[in-house]
């Protein structure tokens, strides 16, 4: 029997969309595979704010893909840049060689980054960016003659991708528990969320800055001479939108300076306008030593990630004979020409359409719509919002943790024509920056409907 999947055709002729009957070959990431394949949530194309199913049904993208298609989908300037680049230079190595767009994009990103975050190292995803930043931190102290500084500090409920470095400093239990001991020599700060103290805060909560002082306890336990870096998300996104308490990040910066520890911001989600500024570090007035990015840098039209390093970090490596490689690290597709072309076109689009400014201007409209529509509904335990993000915690079903949110996500897609994400019994919404006030009202209405539809298990 042939392994080739049969195809069924939707439409009048073979020029329309063909859909595989057999969904088994694709082992889907971060997905309940058996449930999906029994009732697929499939999209076949996208334009602007919308996805479209293979049958042509319109679906509001209230997730910006995976926090990444911030300028909307299939934007012509990005599509054209990719097409042109593929025809002109499809690939060039960046080990020992280079191509112009890599240097151009690095300069553009460095110009957006605050203060002396001036040097950009490219990779292909947020996970690779996290592991790259952690390796840089350890190698930095080695270059400085302090090779004992190898310990890494993360935070509970943190997400830094799925590489072994990222899950070591990450603090989402499900991402860690079946993968063994991970990297040696890591510790974690407490997460910053306290529902009793912070529930229904708009933006950054007032309570919680003192939680940064837990770093002092960790330093006392391990000694600063062993600690290379602290890595945190300015806003913890994947765990369900945890905005930083007011003053928390500044205090963390002060403590890292005090103890000679590098501070790494994971801005894979918060970078490129999600919180109304090019990077969250600008919003919060805190400059990290290393900063990761991905997702929005290409509007997700091509895979790309990277790390931006401050001048003192970069300079520490630029010693010794000039013909010797300074950092033995990189990826075949680092600064891939097509991804660089997509990145440059995306940055042009952000600038020309004022999308970072639009994100900032829409933040209060977004917050008011989400809170006014959902606060006080039966079972809604908390709403968190910062920038163009929001998360709604609601009371789960007895003996089935996470199932209510899963059912709500499924109903949102099939019944309401809207894509949302889940994190436990929490719905997360992060629309593209092209969203309008009418779109925002519609998203809030649809969220209300799916929450109502799941008050009791059916």
Automatic annotation (TrEMBL):
Per its UniProt record, what SUPFAM superfamilies does this chain match? PLP-dependent transferases
Origin superkingdom = Bacteria
Q: Which residues form a coiled coil?
A: none
The record's section on Gene3D superfamilies has: Aspartate Aminotransferase, domain 1, Type I PLP-dependent aspartate aminotransferase-like (Major domain)
Entry EC number(s):
2.6.1.18
What cofactor is this protein dependent on?
A: pyridoxal 5'-phosphate
Please list the GO terms describing molecular function.
beta-alanine:pyruvate transaminase activity; pyridoxal phosphate binding
Q: Which Pfam families does its entry note? A: Aminotran_3
Keywords linked to the UniProt accession: Aminotransferase, Pyridoxal phosphate, Transferase
Q: What InterPro entries has UniProt attached to this entry?
A: Aminotrans_3, Aminotrans_3_PPA_site, PyrdxlP-dep_Trfase, PyrdxlP-dep_Trfase_major, PyrdxlP-dep_Trfase_small
- GO CC annotation terms, alphabetical: cytosol
Which family does the record claim for this protein? Belongs to the class-III pyridoxal-phosphate-dependent aminotransferase family.
Protein name in the entry: Aspartate aminotransferase family protein
- Natural source organism: Phreatobacter cathodiphilus
């Amino acid at each position: 029997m042939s392994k080739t999947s049969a195809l069924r055709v939707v439409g009048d002729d073979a020029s329309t969309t063909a859909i595989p009957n057999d969904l088994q070959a694709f082992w889907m990431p971060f997905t309940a595979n058996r449930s999906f394949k029994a009732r697929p949530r499939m999209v076949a194309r996208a334009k602007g704010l919308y996805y479209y199913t293979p049958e042509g049904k319109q679906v509001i993208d209230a997730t910006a893909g995976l926090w990444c298609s911030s300028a909307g989908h299939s934007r012509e300037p990005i599509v054209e840049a990719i097409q042109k680049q593929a025809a002109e230079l499809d690939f060039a190595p960046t080990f020992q060689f280079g191509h112009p767009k890599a240097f151009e994009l690095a300069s553009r990103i460095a110009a957006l980054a605050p203060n002396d975050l001036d040097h950009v190292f490219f990779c292909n995803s947020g996970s690779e960016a996290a592991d790259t930043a952690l390796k840089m931190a350890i190698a930095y102290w080695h270059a400085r003659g302090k090779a004992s500084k190898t310990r890494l500090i993360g935070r509970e409920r943190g997400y830094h991708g799925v590489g072994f470095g990222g899950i070591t400093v990450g603090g989402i239990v499900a991402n860690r528990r079946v993968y063994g001991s991970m990297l040696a020599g890591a510790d974690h700060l407490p997460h910053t969320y306290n529902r009793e103290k912070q529930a229904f805060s708009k933006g950054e909560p007032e309570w919680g800055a003192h939680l940064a002082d837990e770093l002092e306890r960790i330093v006392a336990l391990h000694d600063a001479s062993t600690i290379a870096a602290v890595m945190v998300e300015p806003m913890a996104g994947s765990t369900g939108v945890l905005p930083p308490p007011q003053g928390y990040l500044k205090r963390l910066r002060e403590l890292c300076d005090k103890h000679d520890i590098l501070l790494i911001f994971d801005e894979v989600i918060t970078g490129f306008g999600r919180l109304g500024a090019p990077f969250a570090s600008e919003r919060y007035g805190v400059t990290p030593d290393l900063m990761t990015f991905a997702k929005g840098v290409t509007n997700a039209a091509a895979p790309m990630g990277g790390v931006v390093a401050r001048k003192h970090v970069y300079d520490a490596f630029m010693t010794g004979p000039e013909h010797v490689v300074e950092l033995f690290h990189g990826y075949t597709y680092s600064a891939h020409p097509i991804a660089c072309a997509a990145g440059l076109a995306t940055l042009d689009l952000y600038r020309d359409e004022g999308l970072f400014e639009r994100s900032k201007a829409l933040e209060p409209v977004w917050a008011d719509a989400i809170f006014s529509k959902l606060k006080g509904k039966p079972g809604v335990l908390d709403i968190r919002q910062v920038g163009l993000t929001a998360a709604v915690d609601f009371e789960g079903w007895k003996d089935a943790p996470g199932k209510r949110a899963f059912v709500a996500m499924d109903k949102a897609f099939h019944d309401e024509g809207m894509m949302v994400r889940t994190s436990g019994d929490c719905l997360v919404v992060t629309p593209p920056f092209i969203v309008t006030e009418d779109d925002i009202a519609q998203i809030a209405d649809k969220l209300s409907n799916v929450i109502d539809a799941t008050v009791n298990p059916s």
